[in-house]
């Protein structure tokens, strides 16, 4: 049996490197049979940091192929990075040249603009939405009139990280309500929650995976028992069906994809424009 190829992928940026990492991860998910190691190299904004980054890339173990996703703006710093070798990919340079040709304008390069606070209104909306998500986490506050959406689900099904993602990236006020043992026994949700039925979206998860996640938090507990997880998931899904609440299985789905599908299902994209 042959060993997998090995590749070291570096996300290099004069900003946070989040954009480079997002692009790179989207690309490498299309390949199987390769063992990737990933390293983010952010804030490469002078000769010293560029040389340090190049040294890290250059010292990659010889049995790894090098792949460099580089979004550094400054040409001199880019040359230093490129001197380290490996396959170099620039997700934006060729696209920017085509945009320049189409618009008849030259770009005005600036460091860190992708994640900068150029729009203070949008930034403040995201901060306010994040505070809302934190104060309406796990059913702490059932005053849901200001909520854009309310996520439902049994404990550890992915409600909180999804709410925070929606808040941080889109400025949506996302609350969540944990379906409790009492709710499952009665097979209905509280009236304060059902009053906002048009905002409700359910999350579900494979019971085996749920048991694993809960065992990491509270090992050898009834909370993590597979039989209990199976019963909770089955009953929660029955509640969704009875009340015609849309829901999604989060087991093999990223937060980004979960969020996108929720926004489509609840027609939330129009709130962003």
Automatic annotation (TrEMBL):
<dbReference type="InterPro" id="IPR005177">
    <property type="entry name" value="Kinase-pyrophosphorylase"/>
</dbReference>
<protein>
    <recommendedName>
        <fullName>Putative phosphoenolpyruvate synthase regulatory protein</fullName>
        <ecNumber>2.7.11.33</ecNumber>
        <ecNumber>2.7.4.28</ecNumber>
    </recommendedName>
</protein>
<feature type="binding site">
    <location>
        <begin position="153"/>
        <end position="160"/>
    </location>
    <ligand>
        <name>ADP</name>
    </ligand>
</feature>
<dbReference type="GO" id="GO:0016740">
    <property type="term" value="F:transferase activity"/>
</dbReference>
<keyword id="KW-0808">Transferase</keyword>
<comment type="similarity">
    <text>Belongs to the pyruvate, phosphate/water dikinase regulatory protein family. PSRP subfamily.</text>
</comment>
<keyword id="KW-0418">Kinase</keyword>
<dbReference type="InterPro" id="IPR026530">
    <property type="entry name" value="PSRP"/>
</dbReference>
<keyword id="KW-0547">Nucleotide-binding</keyword>
<dbReference type="Pfam" id="PF03618">
    <property type="entry name" value="Kinase-PPPase"/>
</dbReference>
<keyword id="KW-0723">Serine/threonine-protein kinase</keyword>
<keyword id="KW-0670">Pyruvate</keyword>
<comment type="function">
    <text>Bifunctional serine/threonine kinase and phosphorylase involved in the regulation of the phosphoenolpyruvate synthase (PEPS) by catalyzing its phosphorylation/dephosphorylation.</text>
</comment>
């Amino acid at each position: 049996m042959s060993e997998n190829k090995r590749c070291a992928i570096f996300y290099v940026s004069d900003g946070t490197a989040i954009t480079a990492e997002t692009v790179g991860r989207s690309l490498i998910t299309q390949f199987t049979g390769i063992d990737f190691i990933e390293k983010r190299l952010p804030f490469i904004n002078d000769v010293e940091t560029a040389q340090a980054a190049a040294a890290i890339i250059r010292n990659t173990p010889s049995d790894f192929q090098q792949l460099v996703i580089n979004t550094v703006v400054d040409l001199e710093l880019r040359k230093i990075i490129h001197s380290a070798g490996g396959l170099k990919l620039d997700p934006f340079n060729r696209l920017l040249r085509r945009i320049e040709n189409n618009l008849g304008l030259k770009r005005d390069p600036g460091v860190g603009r992708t994640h900068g606070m150029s729009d203070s209104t949008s930034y403040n909306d995201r901060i306010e939405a994040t505070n809302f998500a934190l104060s309406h986490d796990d059913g702490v506050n059932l005053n849901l009139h200001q909520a854009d959406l309310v996520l439902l689900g049994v404990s550890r099904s992915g409600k909180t990280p999804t709410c925070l993602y929606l808040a941080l990236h889109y400025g949506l006020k996302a609350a969540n309500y944990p379906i409790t043992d009492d709710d499952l026994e009665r097979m209905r949700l509280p009236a304060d929650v059902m009053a906002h039925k048009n905002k409700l979206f359910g999350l579900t998860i494979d019971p085996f995976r749920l048991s694993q996640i809960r065992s990491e938090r509270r090992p050898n507990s009834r909370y993590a028992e597979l039989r209990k997880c199976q019963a909770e998931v089955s009953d929660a899904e029955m509640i969704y069906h009875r009340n015609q609440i849309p829901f999604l299985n989060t087991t093999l789905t990223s937060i980004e994809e979960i969020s996108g599908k929720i926004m489509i299902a609840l027609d939330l994209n129009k709130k962003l424009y």
